[in-house]
Amino acid sequence: MIGRTISHYRILERLGGGGMGEVYKAEDERLKRVVALKFLPAQMTRDKVAKERFMQEAQAASALDHRNICTIHEIDETEDGQLFIVMACYDGETLKDRIEHHSLNPVKALDVAIQVGEGLSEAHRKGIVHRDIKPANLIVTRDETVKIVDFGIAKLERQTHLTTDGMRLGTVAYMSPEQARGKQVDHTTDVWSLGVVLYEMLTGQRPFRSDFDLGVVYSIVHEDPDAVTALLPALSPEFEGVLQKALMKDKAERYQSMEEFVADLRALRSDSVPVVSPLASTLRGAPRSVAVLPFLDLSATRDQEYFCDGMSEELISALSKIPGLHVASRTSTFAFKGKEHDIQHIGQQLKVTHVLEGSVRKAGDRLRISTQLITVKDGYQLWSEQYDRQLDDVFAIQDDIARSIVQALKVRLGDQTTGQLFRRRAENLEAYHLYLKGQYFWSQRHKGGMRKAMEYYNQAIALEPTYALAYAGLANCFVTLGAFTYLSPQDAFPKARAAAQKALQIDEAVAEAHSALATVALFGDWDVRTAEQEHRRGLELDRAYATGRSWYAVFLSVTGRASAAVDEQRKALSLDPLSLMINSLLGAELYYARQYDDAREQLLKTIELDPGFGTAHSYLGLVYEELARYDDAIREFEQSRELMDLPMVVANLAHAHGVAGNRAIAEQLLAELAETATQRFVSPFFVAAVYAGLKEPDRAFDWLAKAMESRDGWIPYLHCDPRFDVLRSDERFSSLVARIGVVR
């Protein structure tokens, strides 16, 4: 379909599909606008009932004119008789994508639910019941407007013959009890479905779950869901009451109109009814949360630092898999290592309600591990425990501590069991210690640290050849070395891919390996489909893996979804608020989204956290260029150059001098890069940017051609990098972007 012209619509790309049709993005060549075309599946073209239902969707939706309902422009038919609807195409993401792996805060969830409710109220006034309200059918646009789509199984009062008793149409997890039984439905079934969506937005999980559809149906009809306040103790009883009323199994006890439901949702947004209980956590609307601080080494020889760090890291990884529990990431908690801060300050910085402290004392082959869980609000010790074990029993110690913390916090495990919390670890204790040393140096994120980390990962693999996490660590090192051009893409990405694939051959459930493989697929292969699949699998396996979520945000930016990239990077930052890299990358996403003032503010905050972090200075220099503050840009690039020995920083400095009118200095820096290229890899992409800044388009395109030929890892950024805006009107530019093929 891609590239075809149907009627006066040129098909640009596939957006998705379902049981009632495939959806494509297209250009309306008459009105010069982008639209979405939904086609009835070819195999259903001759199905009279399917065709009638498809026509019903068009008629139902076209009769509705509301800001929260997708606009229908027209319905048409191809030459071979295939029906299609022409709809508005929105720049945004589905609610399913937004809440996948992440719940929404109560205020944001309320805002979405109110908008959906208002759109459905309009549909109900026109006698239309949607019958398939679910996150995948709700689009959140860039300006946070919610659009209801897909009225494909809508029931019109005048067309009840399409949905008689015994027909169970819809998505099982969101069906009302009467819908699940195949009974007649009315507008209260949309009330139920919106209640299910609101529950999922708040908790990150559906209220009725099973491995099989029949099990879900049984749960919907016969079982009560977990109380939402059991998963979110800070939520107010009033909020719980509204949700319970929407999910009453007897529809006569449910809200009798969507207007009534929306009115109560609006009341929760007012000052008269609290969203969260005043007796709950001081963190407004936040679920129970914990930060695991680096354990202290109290051994006489002080030789257990790596073990202490690994103890903390394993607990963070395990606890982050528990539904309803927010766990601060390793990077953020380790920022407090070796520093004296009171618990309240740490809690405020990490946005958590509880802090776990611990210490390790080793004597011979015996370990004594002491732990205490402290409430941030009042400094009260909620729980403490001491473990005396043999050194070779370390994994059992970790399990015991995690289970004790879960019990102390009274967090329900939902579908998870304690046996599923921990990753597959090494059988060889020495290999485990070597892996922990690798993690310690990997966390430093500079070239020397990564080289040292790789040494330890390889030593761990030599002792235990099936150590999946060590292979994933190697993959992450090669990805970073390639991304920062310490190595050429030909040297870095194949090695990253091989290490990630080896990790997944051993254990498919290693989230770090999936994220590394996704990044290689995008920047090494320009394979968007594989990259997205691997990113989503990684996030599915570990919703709290901040680095993976940050890399996914980069993927969204490079593939043309700037707004979603900013949102996703913010989610990563919420998991790891003190990560210098994620803070910097949020500034980068704002820069690529052309939100220069916000980018500047974010990067200045990052530099305030650590003035010695060169990446933040480099991105800030790029922002100052776009603000025409060239002296400030040059100053930032010079500071970055002092902190990072990278040709790309020299190229950035050359570009800044070029746009500032300092041509002689820019050319001198270009000569320096040419000399450097005889010794190490210099990215042609960055040289091309310099020539773009010097307003030499022919030479810029020559270097971009070299970047294409060498599979430069930065070339996918071409379409979104503001430095190349001066080339966009040249037909060679659009040709290059099309050849790269990563923009959706």
Q: Overview of this structure, please?
A:
The model is unreliable at 156-169, 276-286 and 410-419 (pLDDT under 50). 50% of the residues lie in helices and 12% in strands. The chain has 30 helices and 17 strands. Helix 10 crosses helix 13, helix 15 (447-463) packs antiparallel against helix 16 and helix 22 (580-592) packs antiparallel against helix 23 (596-609). The longest helix has 20 residues, at 106-125. Among the domains are: 5-88, Phosphorylase Kinase, domain 1; 92-269, Transferase(Phosphotransferase), domain 1 (Orthogonal Bundle); 289-411, 3-Layer(aba) Sandwich (Rossmann fold), CATH 3.40.50; 645-744, no CATH class. The strands form four sheets. The chain has a six-stranded antiparallel sheet, covered by helices on one side. Strands 12, 13, 14, 15, 16 and 17 form a six-stranded mixed sheet that branches. A three-stranded antiparallel sheet has the order 7-9-10. It starts with a strand and ends with a helix. With 744 residues, it is α+β, with helices and mostly antiparallel strands.
Characteristics:
Rossmann fold; 12% strand; Transferase(Phosphotransferase), domain 1; 744 residues; six-stranded antiparallel sheet; Phosphorylase Kinase, domain 1; globular; alpha+beta
Shape: globular
Tell me what the CATH architecture of the domain at 92-269 is.
Orthogonal Bundle
Low-confidence stretches: 156-169, 276-286, 410-419
Distance N to C terminus: 15 Å
For CATH, the homologous superfamily of the domain at 92-269 is named as Transferase(Phosphotransferase) domain 1
Strand order of the main beta sheet, please? 1-2-3-4-6-5
Number of helices: 30
Helix- and strand-based class?
alpha+beta
Oligomer: single chain
Largest sheet geometry: 6 strands, antiparallel
CATH topology of the domain at 92-269: Transferase(Phosphotransferase), domain 1
CATH hierarchy, class of the domain at 92-269: Mainly Alpha
Number of strands: 17
Q: Overall pLDDT, averaged?
A: 83
- Helix fraction, binned, reads 40-55%
Instruction: Provide the β-strand percentage band.
Output: 5-15%
Radius of gyration: 28 Å
